[in-house]
Amino acid sequence: MTTSPTPSPTAAAQVPAQAKAPKSRFRWRVIDIVTAAVLGVATGLIFVFWNSVGYLWFTTMDALTPGFGGIAVGIWLLGGVLGGLIIRKPGAALFVEVLAACVSMLLGSQWSIETVYSGIAQGLGAELIFALFLYKRFGLSVAMLAGAGAAVAAWVLELFLSANIEKGPEFLTIYLVAVVVSGAVLAGVVGWLLTRALAATGALNRFAAGRSAKRIG
Fold first, then answer.
1. How many other β-carbons are positioned within 10 Å of the β-carbon of residue 31?
2. How many angstroms separate the CA atoms of 47 and 107, rounded?
3. How many CA atoms lie within 13 A of 141 on its CB side?
4. Distance between the two ends of the chain, CA-based, in angstroms?
5. Does the predicted model carry a pTM greater than 0.85?
6. Within a domain: residue 19?
7. pLDDT digit string (tens) for 114-170?
């Protein structure tokens, strides 16, 4: 009669070791996807409001000093910063900003499909900053840099999408400075404060953003 070979101690030890292998912190959970979708829709509704109020501010400032209208752009960069700060996974900043842009377009943005192009560029700009810090740092300074990164990406896209490249170096310099300051403050600082406020309500308890806010608080 034959008997099955007895597994070696090494092979037996490998099974539980593999079963207990920790999941990557970069792996998206269902709750990450759902929360990112909710953030995208909510931010898209903010964009819809800002499409009228913010654009009025933009045109008023631009009439005073060509290029200074960029000071109103920051709110349109908010999605990428919020996505990165709350989800803290690769692709979150891009996902939330693009979804917000799609919502804005579908609800009647005056820029139509160009809204989505802008969302892609702005999301990538914010995403790059979080990636540079290896998705490990999410403080105020990083949030401001993410807002500024989204702003620079928006500025580059508009060189061609809005033909800004034809408007001369003075306009481009003023617009770049204005949009970067706006991105750092209206997207970066405001995004960071919103994340802290959400964490304080307990809505982010299942996220690192909520746990870290409690430790700091």
1. 11
2. 10
3. 3
4. 69
5. yes
6. no
7. 999 999 999 999 999 999 999 999 999 999 999 999 999 999 999 999 999 999 999
Residue with tokens 């998206």: 28
Per-residue pLDDT reduced to its tens digit, 49-93 = 999 999 999 999 999 999 999 999 999 999 999 999 999 999 999
Total number of domains constituting the chain: 1
Residue with structure tokens 């033909």?
163
Domain residues for 178?
28-216
**H helix intervals, the chain:** 9-19, 30-64, 78-87, 92-106, 114-132, 140-161, 169-182, 190-201, 208-216
Asked if residue 134 lies in contact with residue 154, where contact means CB atoms within 8 angstroms, the answer is no
pLDDT of residue 1: 45
Distance CA 42, CA 103 (A): 9
Q: Please check whether residue 17 lies inside any domain of the structure.
A: no
Decide: 129 and 149 in contact? Cβ < 8 Å: yes
Q: Is residue 210 part of a domain?
A: yes
Q: Is residue 12 part of a domain?
A: no
Q: Which two tokens stand for residue 167?
A: 């408007």
Cα–Cα distance between 54 and 179 in angstroms, integer? 13
Token duo for residue 216: 């700091």
